[in-house]
Batch of 3 targets.
Target 1
Amino acid sequence: MAKLSMKKISMKYEKKLILEDLDLEVKHGELLVLLGESGCGKTTLLKIVAGIIHPEEGSIYVDDTEISDFSPQVRQMGYVPQAQVLFPHMKVKQNIAFGLEARRLTKETIQEKINWIANLIEISELLERYPRELSGGQKQRVALARAMSIEPHILLLDEPLSSIDATGRESLALTIRRIQKETSTTTLYVTHNGDEARLISDRVAVIYDGKIQQIGKVLDVEQHPKNYLIAKILGSPNIWPILYTKKKEKTILTTQICDIPIQKKISSKITGIKIPPSIISISKNQIVDSGFVVLKCYVKTMIEKNEDEYRLILDIDGNPSEYIKVDCSRNEYNNNITESKEVFIYFNPAEAILL
């Protein structure tokens, strides 16, 4: 296990600052997910850590040793880029052996390590195949095996699931998590997908504007995002930016779906609002209650969360560009959804989360 530290990292691309005085620490044996939208500098930071590119400013440390000027070959890091870069003329076992042979290990030791990592990543049956004979998910497993075979101090993963079909994505994500836990390898995992962060992370660090904006356990960040943009990057359901704020007897927040009255005192700037699916109720009849926000909707689609609960995705009447997600029981669905699929939803604005 090793600790990875990035201190005051700055980097420009075509005169635009994409990383600015960035600080980040990955703890011993931790899997930290670096989460951000495309173009925010995630891959650049990973390449800086790997030694592929050099930052304009800042330092990289592994434990207490500064490695900023070390070549990639001596950093003892396993790096899996987004593109599946396997040697096409080599069999799987030869691809895995490549980094081991560079370390001048004996043939017996190399074979032992190939067998060990192939068994760990569950690709033993692929060792005699060529990359052209593999699926996207299998190729990524081989790339992971090659990176892990050298038993790196730090593992760097750049969007490892982005080129894999939906059926293989979760399986590989859980494989990565299992291997990381079994080997206690400190891992920095880059993605733009909030679901991946929820699935495998110890902690998540949200990046935009060149800096880490919030870091913590993914559930804590999701429940208490510092602002609308962080909630959006996490892919939280039912979040909208605040378009306009009007303050009279009470505060009225104008959003893309409706105006929302807020009774509680607001002391800081609000950038958005989150309406958790669980606080929304449904009815086939119009609700008359001045304390609730009521919207007329139409069922667009339905996802079965479990045998007793559905998640409905609803189009908002008169607002075709927006939709809202609602959780309901099977009984609620059967009792309230008519053939026209028209439904009224309502929620207490006091339960909405201000961002």
Target 2
Amino acid sequence: MDIIVLKPAATAKEIRHIVKKLDKKGFKVNISKGTERTVIGVLGDTSIITEDESNAFASLAGVETVHRITQPYKMASRNFKSSNTTFRVGKQTIGGKKIQVMAGPCAVESGPVLLNIAREVKKAGATFIRGGAFKPRTSPYSFQGLGEEGLKILAETREKTGLPVVTEIMDPRDIDVILKYADIIQIGARNMQNFRLLREVGLYDKPILLKRGLSATIKELLMAAEYIMAQGNQKVILCERGIRTFETATRNTLDLNAIPVLKKLSHLPVIVDPSHGAGTWGLVSPMSKAAVAAGADGLMIEVHTKPAEALSDGEQSLKPEKFKALMKELKAVARAVGRTI
């Protein structure tokens, strides 16, 4: 027993009674209220519930049906919620008909540089500004980001452009300062299985953009999302950003299969990061269009006015004029699959 579907006429008293019985057995619950049905998600090791106990719950007043979920991820599963999850971030809706585009430099370098990039990408149609204030780098000698100063620059850029901010968290100890400035908190690929960090961000009502790990399976990505959702935060965005394979022609292998697979298995919105997936700016445009055609709900694209001078990942960053041309092409692809951009 993992999901209890309630009757449309189930009363608040009946729901409290069901929750109390589950609590006595040591289970936590998540109550999801839809337009037609209310669903109680049962959190914990439900394998200990016998068939007789499951049948007893099914006979309680207010209960319509009881379902078992065979996947280890429950709340992220489409069995838990059949309709696509959508939520608002500022004036934008994540997971809706409109494809959201998050664009900007890999790392925040200075106020003037970021503001210039933000104005260019907004003019082209981007709906979010992205930029790292804390940067996880392979080498300890590479640029690590500006920290809180970078967050302040992002917030100032939001004030001047109206673009909501997407930025990465690396350490649970930074959660308070990140919450002050970010509209969406990004969990990077290297931290996808940092379970302490996942639990921490799950405690707050702030959208989380969860990137797939470099060598993570789709199941592992969904299990990471489950860690966040089990703490109460249901605003999770899954991000395919390329995985490590034997191929050396590109930085990573962008797994476009992941988009329809995730859409089938989960109700959570899915976006794609073609910049990290390909690792070179010349592949960003075709991979972006392919991602939209495959059903992505959004894109995360690195843009820089002077890629050759970028402090991080300049080789995969588009110049503003290239980004503008891409956005125009993406509109035609989006129309072809019944979406807007």
Target 3
Amino acid sequence: MNLRMLGVAAVTAALLTGLVPATAQADPSPSLPVVSTPADPATPPITPASEPPATSTSEPPATSTSTPPATTPSTPTSTPTAPPRTAAAVPLSISLDQPATSWEDRPMTFTGKVSNGAVGWYISLWQALPSGWTLRSSTKTTTGGAYRMTYTPTTPIHTTFRAVVGPKFYEAPAISPARIGTAQDRKIVLNAPSPSYITLTGVAAYGHTTPAEPGLEVVLQDLLGNGTWRWLTSTKVDANGYFHLPIPDNFPHTRTVRVVSRGVAATAVEVSASARFVIKAALNPKVFTVAASMVPKTYRSGCPVGPSSLRLLILNYWGFDGLVHKGELILRDAAVQKMITVWTASFNAHFPIRRMQRVDVFGGNDITSMAADNTSAFNCRQVTGDPYSLSPHSYGFAIDINTVENPYLAANNVWYPSNGLSYRNRSAVRPGMLFSSSTTTRSLVGQGYFWGANWSKPDYQHFEPK
């Protein structure tokens, strides 16, 4: 009886065990896609030179995957139906537009956008250097995931840039394609000077700016012995970027000069290479024909010599101030070469001349010209103090030199000019006075001229051919 009951119970238990599995298998939920950083075959991995400081800016949310509890599945009695597949997530990406070529010390602009259109995401700009990727700028995305940031290079560059999502280059959720950023050399070019220049020939420093920068003020400086740079003059660059800056050339000198931009930010100041200008003193004579319009007060019809027989001699002379000045003499054509010889010797001896202008500047008036201490030659007129005699100056050969320092006694026994009376005392030697030993006197006598100081009424300023 008991055995029969036990057998029935065992059979019943076995049947129940075959109908219900010991454990039900869980169906795991699909995880969110993990965004990976795209590999860059063109850029080898480099240790970053610097990383930006931590910021409170929110980074794009990181995706996570939940792990279901482990279970031991049992062998099903029939093939189960496969669960539906989840659509693949689109990888996050960031673009970087090609930046326009710029100049050093000028901002370069970088633009692009993130693919998901997120607003307020932190974007950083990195430059590839030999030492590693270096942070150059950062910003946040705006509408549609767009961003814009600038970087101002301090030197010319032609290097790779990338934009990344987040504050770190490595482990960034997305890195842009590489773009080449170019900043050209912004500079002032000073043209190479000639080996040397002659005084009063319009010596100037020429050059240009790159880029043109019309209206930019540039300053010419010269180097002093104590190592400091002195401001000489300034000008503004023309529409094509060219400039010319006059260099003081009224004294023989060797100057080291440079050109510097002015009126710009300190970081944008450009300085040219230095150049050496050698200025030498010389007579530098120039001869020109004479028209009647050049001698309106010193020539008139009936004069013994007409304008066609005269010449204008332009030459340099040493002034009483120790500087070189430019003078002019109206001479007879046959006297020009002799005067060049005389004034070359006088110039080399540094004999000082107060003024050397055409008498026409003084209205043709000899007394006014003498009072101005003017050295001159041609003037068709009567002898001062003797209205009945024609002056030797009417022929263009005679010359008067430093008329105040070398006065003369006229035929009417009056000394001219009145402001030269103190120079009647020839024993008190002063600059500009003529003596028989003076280089100018000896040179004129050597060219066949007679000195008026030897007349009974001395004329210390006057020389004429024998």
